[in-house]
């Protein structure tokens, strides 16, 4: 049976990994380190989103696109069009900072998942992919012919309360 555990920075996903190791593979606690080929730990980095904030919704989109392209080339923070002033949060330095933070987050998540496995003397295959988590996870499950997917739903306490 091939099992995949989807993890992120949440406590719930790490608990899902711990639960999987403790309940689906209890026979592994023999004290010897075991390479478990049937367990895959997957972390999906969300795509970096670029946003435009406009004061006027009736902006000619072609002029906005051209202005944004010019702003990217010049690494500017403000773009002025004939229709309106648009604040552009699409600077190269901001994007590189966000990417660096995402990489640090991924390293933290993968390290923590690996430590959870090591504490139980288990070596699991770890995969990091980019994209929208729900899409990437479902595609990977299908592609790798996974029998069981374990994870958490990712809802905050407030969101669960309203459900």
UniProtKB/TrEMBL annotation:
Pfam families: Usp. InterPro entries: Rossmann-like_a/b/a_fold, UspA. Residues 2-162 form the UspA domain. This is UspA domain-containing protein. It comes from Dioscorea zingiberensis.
């Amino acid at each position: 049976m091939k099992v995949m555990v989807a993890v992120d920075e949440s406590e719930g996903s790490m608990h899902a990994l711990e639960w999987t190791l403790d309940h689906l593979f209890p026979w592994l606690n023999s004290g010897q380190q075991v390479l478990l080929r049937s367990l895959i730990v997957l972390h999906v980095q969300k795509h970096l989103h670029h946003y435009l904030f406009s004061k006027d919704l009736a902006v000619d989109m072609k002029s906005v696109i051209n202005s944004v392209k010019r702003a990217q080339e010049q690494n500017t923070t403000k773009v002025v069009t004939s229709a309106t002033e648009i604040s552009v949060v699409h600077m190269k330095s901001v994007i590189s900072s966000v990417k660096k933070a995402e990489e640090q987050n991924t390293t933290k998540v993968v390290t923590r998942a690996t430590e959870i496995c090591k504490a139980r003397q288990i070596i699991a295959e770890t995969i990091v992919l980019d994209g929208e988590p729900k899409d990437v996870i479902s595609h990977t499950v299908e592609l790798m012919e996974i029998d069981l997917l374990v994870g958490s739903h990712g809802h905050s306490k407030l969101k669960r309360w309203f459900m």
